[in-house]
Design brief:
heterodimer, A: 379 residues, alpha+beta, 6-stranded mixed β-sheet, 6 strands, B: 177 residues, mainly alpha, globular
């Protein structure tokens, strides 16, 4: 047999070309005409089967975008529903605040809370007990500190203060002022000073400096807030436990010293010795009186809260604390919402980023492995 | 004008369908021949050919004419499917390969048939990669440029490899003779 020439070899090769069975060709034509419905005897790998089962990546883009939007929306709603619990948080105030909106501090450190930071905490029973002694007035005989019940849990002495700004029509300033007096009286408070000015919007105003029993501060603020529209409310606490305890200890020491001096006085044999002890005793008694006054002052600070109430008239922009919800507030809210949305996005990216990176790495590794294996098949 | 644009946009998928149908009609037997030469197993070649066309049909809108010829794209898909099948089967393909005989080529036992039997046997002795080159050229009827695209080679490199494969095949035929 002769060696085939190039054209003959090519012709022989073309003649060796495998041809499909007519049945197969006809069936494939049918499937092609039907647009290759998803029905095949092809043995897919699990990866390929998963890829076929999943929608195309383009179809996943809107679904993914929707998921991200949903996550952000839910987060914003959740974040929007939570109170601004951080100290000094500011925001538009709303009227109709109830007792439940008042914040009770149990920590020793000082802090502040604005209107719109509601808590569900109720007054502790110890505080209620303290209210009794506070109601007796600042003139009540001072009891030793150890027997006094502090107005806060854990026997901490906490000085509290609040500032409330009400918005009123000029003609209502007088009535609102009267209601302030009524509320203070109803809660056994003391009006330290007050001033009322009639006039045009922006000029008519009132100002009250009050002392309210700390145990009744929540109720009193709720009553004061109900008088008119609340433009702003601010509460602060200051822990005065340390100076109160120190003053009590010094008072006890002083009493012991006086007892000791009295004993020395009884035992004094000479006139000069007696005079010396009496002089020392007098000095110690003055010292004790100062300590007692100091302790009384501290305990009164804990028992009574200073409250400043201002009634303002005119536009919200004229008040220092804001007022009716306006464009500025809307911009603030929008900024906060955007900030929350950005934070949620960052968190989502922090979670999804590594997952996507791992998936990408897995996909690239799989792809490289498949390519290597394909090359190896023919090598 | 606007209606014409809308109609054109609506016709876009149909254009892809028509182009794919043409590609299918012109390549069906070529793809089968190429896949069958790789697998050497007719039933498996049918399955892989069908799967390759199905896959190409699903991806038809992703085909970018700037990246190559449609036939090269289609044969690339078929090649991957066939190699994956080979990968799955391992050496099973060689075990199931049917030996060629004179009956396959007409059964007349004349010089024509014997020569083709010798070429078929020589083809069997080639390396798989060389056999693939020859299959792409003579079974599928691809041009060197298309072969280069399918295999990811330069056109000159594909031509050189094909030439070597043909030389080797001719030498193998000489050995048979």
């Amino acid at each position: 047999m002769e060696t085939p020439r190039d054209d003959q070899l090519a012709a022989d090769l073309r003649a060796l070309r495998p041809a499909p069975r007519p049945e197969f060709a006809a069936k494939l034509d049918e499937r092609a005409a039907a647009g290759f419905p998803r029905h095949t005897h092809w043995r897919w790998t699990p990866f390929e089967r998963l890829r076929l089962a999943l929608p195309s990546p383009r179809a996943l883009i809107p679904a993914g975008a929707l998921a991200v939007v949903a996550i952000v929306a839910v987060s914003v709603v959740v974040a929007g529903g939570e109170p601004a619990s951080e100290p000094n948080a500011s925001g538009p105030s709303t009227g109709g605040t109830t007792l439940g909106d008042l914040h009770e501090f149990d920590s020793g450190s000082s802090g502040t809370v604005e209107e719109g930071a509601p808590t569900t905490g109720a007054l502790p029973s110890s505080a209620a007990a303290t209210a009794g002694s506070a109601e007796a007035g600042g003139s009540a005989e001072l009891e030793p500190f150890s027997r006094k019940v502090a107005p806060q849990p854990h026997n901490r002495a906490v000085e509290r203060s609040a500032e409330l700004v009400l918005a009123a029509a000029p003609g209502d300033v007088g009535d609102d002022s009267a209601k302030v007096f009524e509320a203070v009286h109803a809660h056994d408070g003391i009006v330290m000073s007050s001033s009322t000015r009639e006039g045009k919007p922006g000029e008519a105003a009132a100002r009250f400096e009050l002392l309210i029993p700390s145990a009744k501060l929540g109720d009193a603020l709720a009553a004061l807030s109900a008088i008119d529209e609340v433009r702003s409310r601010h509460e602060a606490t200051d822990d005065i436990t340390a100076p109160t305890v120190a003053a009590g200890e010094l008072l006890a020491d002083s009493k012991a010293r006086i007892d000791s001096l009295l004993a020395q006085l009884e035992g004094a044999e000479t006139e000069s010795g007696r005079e010396a002890v009496e002089a020392e005793l007098a000095g110690e008694r003055r010292h004790r009186a100062r300590l007692r006054a100091q302790l009384q002052h501290l305990e009164r600070r804990a028992d009574y809260s200073r409250v400043l109430v201002r009634i303002e008239t005119g536009g919200a922009e004229e008040s220092s604390g804001g007022g009716a919800w306006g464009v500025g507030d809307a911009l603030d809210d929008a900024g906060q919402i955007l900030a929350v949305a950005a934070a949620v996005t960052v968190v989502a990216l922090a979670i999804l980023g590594p997952i996507a990176l791992l998936a990408l790495l897995a996909w690239l590794t799989h792809r490289a492995w498949v390519r290597r294996e394909r090359r190896r098949v023919l090598s | 004008m606007e209606q014409a644009l809308v109609a054109e946009a609506q016709d876009a998928p149909r254009t892809a369908d028509i182009a794919f149908e043409r590609l299918y009609r012109s390549s069906r037997d070529d793809v089968y021949a190429y896949v069958a030469s790789l697998l050497r197993d007719a039933p498996a070649a049918e399955e892989v050919t069908a799967a390759a066309f199905e896959s190409a049909y699903r991806k038809r809108n992703r085909f970018d004419p700037e990246r190559g010829e449609p036939r090269a794209w289609l044969f690339g898909i078929a090649r991957n499917a066939a190699l994956d099948e080979l990968r799955r089967r391992g050496r099973q393909a060689e075990l199931t390969a049917e030996p060629a005989d004179v009956e396959t080529f007409g059964g007349r036992g004349d010089e024509h048939s014997e020569r083709r039997l010798a070429v078929a046997e020589a083809l069997e002795r080639l390396e798989p990669a060389e056999r693939e080159l020859i299959a792409l050229k003579f079974f599928a009827g691809l041009a060197n440029a298309e072969i280069a695209q399918v295999l990811g080679l330069s056109e000159s490199n594909a031509g050189t490899k094909l030439h070597r494969a043909m030389t080797k095949l001719r030498e193998a035929c000489d050995g048979n003779a």
